[in-house]
Amino acid sequence: MISDAEKLDVENAITKAENKTSAEIVAVIARASGGYYYVPYMWGALISLAVPWPLIHWTWMPVQTIYLIQLGVFAGLALVLNYPPLRFALVPRSVMKKRAHQRAMQQFVAQDIYTTAGHTGVLLFVSVAERYAEIVVDCEVHAHVPDEEWKGIIDGLTADIGRGQPAKALVEAIRRIGEHLAAHFPPSAAKENLLPNHLVMLDAE
To answer: Cβ neighbours of residue 22 under 8 Å, at least 6 residues apart?
Structure first.
């Protein structure tokens, strides 16, 4: 999704935005927020359960043969549906959204964003397989910036990613996040850069 050169552009955007505010920005991209490995077996089981009925009613096959066919259907579907594009396509959108949101919350803690001075940390989270993006903010930022502003940034981010411009999307989103933070949390002489500015890349869980 992001080349090394584009990753550097994103990191430079974070540094530039943080130079104008006392707040901290962390950007995380996850290849996927979940493996959903149960999905192929669930669908394989559901379909294979239906296999015996037409064979029992419309054929004279022995029960043992029908049972072997049922096992073959289950094994074949479980194998084929484990192909990642198919596996992810079978997961309900609501399940993927919930799992991606959970991982965003986990990263807010895992990246120590909640420990920032003044509680002014911001997480920009993107989960590729789920096609999900979210901005998670600490309490002080939430008190000053309405949720609608973050939604507007996410809408622009997802639109640019959909057009095949993920790096541009991240840089622009970080720039807009920085503008809001600079307006409410100007830089101070005592500010320390406690969180790294590098782009965090996560594999699928």
So the answer is: 117, 118, 120, 185, 186, 187, 188, 191
pTM score of the predicted model: 0.87
Q: Which amino acid is at 153?
A: I
Tokens 């790096």, residue located: 167
- Whether 163 and 84 share a structural domain: no
Please check whether residues 12 and 56 belong to one and the same domain: no
Q: What is the pLDDT of residue 32?
A: 94
At 108-124, the pLDDT tens digits run 999 999 988 889 999 99
Is it the case that residue 166 has pLDDT exceeding 80? Answer: yes
Q: Are residues 107 and 196 in the same domain?
A: yes
Number of compact structural domains in the chain: 2
Same domain for 61 and 111, yes or no, is no
